[in-house]
Amino acid sequence: MMRGRRLRTTPMLRELVRETRMSAEALVLPVFIKEGQDIKEEIPSLPGQYHCSPDRIGEEIERALQCGVSKFLLFGLPEHKDEVGCGAYDDDGVVQQGLRAIRRQFGDRVYLITDICMCEYTSHGHCGILSGQTVDNDQTLPYLARIAVSHARAGADMVAPSDMMDGRVEAIRRALDEAGFGHLPILSYAVKYASSFYGPFRDAAGSAPSFGDRKSYQMDCHNRREAIKEALADVKEGADLLMVKPALAYLDVIQAVKQHTHLPLAAYSVSGEYAMTKAAAAAGLIDEYGVMCESAVAVFRAGADILITYYARELAGAIQRGDIG
């Protein structure tokens, strides 16, 4: 008699034969450091996430460590902004303060990745230096390099340029090498789409552009082959890891980039994905825990090696319980 082709599994057998494996070690939690003192305030557009001043950011780090998450992507909210975003590369800038505070408290127990961009620091909210009403790609590169070196000096373990300027990986690599940080890896936001899913983050980081949009330097959602081109260009320039952003609406892109490159690949499950899940759950429309788990599995199944997510703590718990992993 012919046996059924579908494997009849018990819970332990399901764990044994899973094709997609996840680990808390592959999760990265974004954190927001706000300039000032004694600040810890929930972000309205991102329930469960907080703005913390450098003297209190350790509370969020400790909360994540207790869940098994030890890797963090740092964003800064400065008190003052200007045309050239000087707070981004100030050695006493908000991210630099946060890096030093976290490192003093936690040492090597944590791995700190810093976002390299100018949108949170410029008065106009764009990711580079303006020439009239247009972002000047080449003029922006030295500023990005200065930010990366400043973060390295303050204690970053990795830098992650998110600006999408052409040539920025090469410029940052050269600057880091010349400053004695040849060992510091670059996680390139190689494939970053001009997405509608970024809304809550722009509120959280105060980084919405004051005019126009970012479609001239971020990618068109219609294009997949361009993603491969962008990723291969960053590999050539010296990137150590690559990223696709957003995640869920671009699973095909994650798969394509994974197939055409050989570097570790991160995917960023962005603020809009998180906020939509939270809102639907609050309305009683979905099972938040189940959707969170299923979405994360989908990203890894598509080919990601690393997941940057606001659900990092909760996912680490789900992995520990064996619900995913």
From TrEMBL:
InterPro entries, per database record: ALAD (IPR001731), ALAD_AS (IPR030656), Aldolase_TIM (IPR013785)
Record pathway: Porphyrin-containing compound metabolism; protoporphyrin-IX biosynthesis; coproporphyrinogen-III from 5-aminolevulinate: step 1/4
Keyword Nuclease among UniProt keywords: no
Binding site for 5-aminolevulinate 2: 271, 310
Enzyme's top EC category: lyase
Nucleotide-binding as UniProt keyword: no
Needed co-factor(s): Zn(2+)
GO CC list: cytosol
Catalysis: reaction(s): 2 5-aminolevulinate = porphobilinogen + 2 H2O + H(+)
Listed EC numbers: 4.2.1.24
GO biological process, one term: protoporphyrinogen IX biosynthetic process
Amino-acid positions noted as binding Zn(2+) in the UniProt annotation, renumbered to this chain: 117, 119, 127
Binding-site residues for Mg(2+), renumbered to this chain: 230
PROSITE patterns per record: D_ALA_DEHYDRATASE (PS00169)
A GO term, aspect molecular function: porphobilinogen synthase activity
Record-annotated active site: 192, 245
Superkingdom of origin: Bacteria
Residue positions binding 5-aminolevulinate 1: 202, 214
Keyword annotations: Heme biosynthesis, Lyase, Magnesium, Metal-binding, Porphyrin biosynthesis, Zinc
Cited function: Catalyzes an early step in the biosynthesis of tetrapyrroles. Binds two molecules of 5-aminolevulinate per subunit, each at a distinct site, and catalyzes their condensation to form porphobilinogen.
Oligomeric and partner information: Homooctamer.
Name of the protein this chain belongs to: Delta-aminolevulinic acid dehydratase
Annotated source species: Neobittarella massiliensis (ex Bilen et al. 2018)
Gene: hemB
